[in-house]
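Request:
You are asked to prepare a plain-text protein record giving the amino acid sequence and the backbone structure tokens, at your earliest convenience.
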Amino acid sequence: MMKLTVKQLIEQNNEKRKLLTSENVAYYDDLLVYIRMNKFKDERATEIALLNLLDEILEAQKEGKCAEELFGTSPKGYADKIIESLPKESKRSIIEFGLEILFTLFGWYLVVWGIWPMINQENQTVYIGSLTVSALLLIASLLLLVLLVFKVIKNQAFSDQKKKTTATWVLGLLIGILFVVGIMSNFLLQPFGTAMKMTYYTPFGLGCFLLLASYVLKKSRENRVE
């Protein structure tokens, strides 16, 4: 039998979840979010474990049982046991996933930054020193934000809907502020270092290239069967 890719496993999971009752889907979705937020665990093994878990709930559902009766009222403890049993992600996959996030965030930053020069068709002068500092600060801030997002989503997985909604709004606000501060830093930071001329389409084009690279990495990860 041919092995399923990560993407195929996720698609199968999404289809089977449609068969769950509203009570069971709420219980399972909390488990799914909590388990998936552990990105240092093998992604394919994680999706297989989630699919097996879903199959157990569907079998119990046929017998008139709910997920809470099957796994108890403390899903977090059960999820922690599943996470402990999962193999660690390979270093290669961790690096690829990190690059995927980095390319995505930095790509959108460059696209947003490059829109105004594109509209006005104005070439720009950038200074290597100040550009390097602002880029490093932005990358560090974005990576810290990603870690915060994963931590908050994981911690709120078993909270009530009101707390989940509040956490979502707070994270969205932080992301918005970070992008604004990152873009404004280019104008507020005193220029220093070697000056370099840059055509008006370069930031936007580079941003699109990074987003494309992120998409390629994502598809490669989803279609891997090892």
About this structure: The radius of gyration is 22 Å. The chain has two domains: 6-85, 91-222.
